[in-house]
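Lay summary

Proteins are chains of building blocks that fold into shapes. Our project writes down both the chain and a compact code for its shape. Here are two examples, one after the other.
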Amino acid sequence: MILIKILKSLFLFTVIGIGYGFLVTTIHAQDISLAITPPILEVMIQPGKEITQNYLISNNGSETPLKISIVPFSPSDEYGNVKFADLTNYNDINLLNWFKIGGMPLDENQKLFLPRGGNQEIILTISPPSDAPEGDYYLTLLFATDSSGIIGGQATHTQAQIGANILLTVSQDGNPRKDAQITLFSAPKIIDSLGQIVYIVKIKNTGSAFFKPIGKININHLFGNEETLTLAPQNILASSIREIPCTKDEQLIRCSLTKKVLFGIYTGNLKFQLDDGKESFEASTTTIAFPFSIVAALIIVFIITRTIVLKFKK
């Protein structure tokens, strides 16, 4: 059984800290301009099986040699950023031997020369052996430049990296264990009526495979209509905690009320499922809204008015 899910879009960036998607910025240094598609591959595969994935890397800048490598990564915080790990940590399972470029084994010195305006198709083969341990493997197919030159009479050394993330699940039966825990669902307990209610959602992956939470936050108010916020379906890697924002019109946003906060009690109800749709998770939180600033302003106006009136009476 092989299940492949590819998110197809095009990014132009330098790798700063590769997230579950990417934390990216455009490359301009020394006219280096690289792009790769698809930027992320999500794949589930049985041990002993094989898949291939085509990548297209483009160079819109100066001609440059690119070093090709496979680099493991792991979460570095709760916001989707990650840190690279040492491939030697996987020497016991010969992880590098699972990958081939163009049908040839990938080695540490493999390079690709890409001329200005050139495009190159890269065919990546992934084939975990029949005795590969089941579980998740988080990797980046990384292309790194290493260019030297002269600018203003001074020697320069420019390095840039571009990569595509691979979220690889090795599973014998195609049904890896997925489970979650809501570690935080919070909002202010008391808030000024002129303020804004912001909900914070943190979810821990307690299973053995990455997943996306699919769900909503429904906010009820005694004197108003219900408002619904949609959770962003972002990947949460195994054994990690991630803060999940909301989404609207395909844009990431804070999980906050869009309507003005009035007087009363607001109850936020969080409910989501994992992307396998097998189990639901729920939590709730309550916020009391009171017009403190309005009351304070009225008191100040009253005191000033009373002071003026008493002064004129004298």
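And here is the second example, written the same way.
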Amino acid sequence: MNAEPDFFRSICPPPGWPLDADRHGALAHENARLRESLARQATRLDETEHKLRHAQAELARANRLSLYGELVASIVHEVAQPVTALDSAARAGLRWLERDEPNVARAREALTHISACANRARTIIESLRARAREDAPGFAVFDLGASLREVADLATHTFGAMKVTLRLDPRVPPLPVRGERVLLQQAILNLLMNGAEAMQDRPEGQRELVLDWELAGDSLRIHVDDRGEGFDPALAERVFEPLFTTKPSGMGMGLAISRSIVQAHQGQLLLAPRPDGGTRATLTLPRTAA
């Protein structure tokens, strides 16, 4: 005999079927319990949605603060370099003028360098302002070879004060690329400064930076080699994170800014340990027809 119909009738009897008081009371109690459980679930759901909205608002605020912090750090980091160069050039100029026989020609060179650094600081500020507004960069074809020589000249007084020697083949040929000249120069200057700072614990005669280039198919590679202590390969990606630094007095912005500039030019920036010690930074860019 099939007991299934009796089971269903005991739960949901058809219309007109007699209900005893116990069954009716049990069903009423169960309904009340379910309503109360659903009410608690709805309350918890409302509370969870409120907490989620609050967390999303806090996350958006934290992201905005992080972006503001990165922008401020970028301004401080990028402007600090030409300001440091200004100070170094001014001190050099004073030394030339304070000699028993003042060297006016060398002092004039220092003043020319000061003017160039001031112009560079103004250009950097304008570029940072454009980045903050998310303006499209103004790309044009230019000679990166000449720009490398300009970067070396700009760094002369700063590296002199740091007792760092920079080697660059003066016969760099024309290297046409498409991009924003000042931004790419700043990326390369950041790499040079990073390498120079990495060698400050080495004896003065061993602080040598090498700025070099090579053609590789449709790409142009710029290398910056230093003789510092190198870096932990496990941090090869973290060193590019904004505000991450392994230096006691570092800001953690130089490499992050350089990579963002290179990526905006459809390029790549990598760090690798050198076999004889130190670090090689390689900046790869697409080549452009002259």
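What can we say about the second shape? The longest helix spans residues 21-97.
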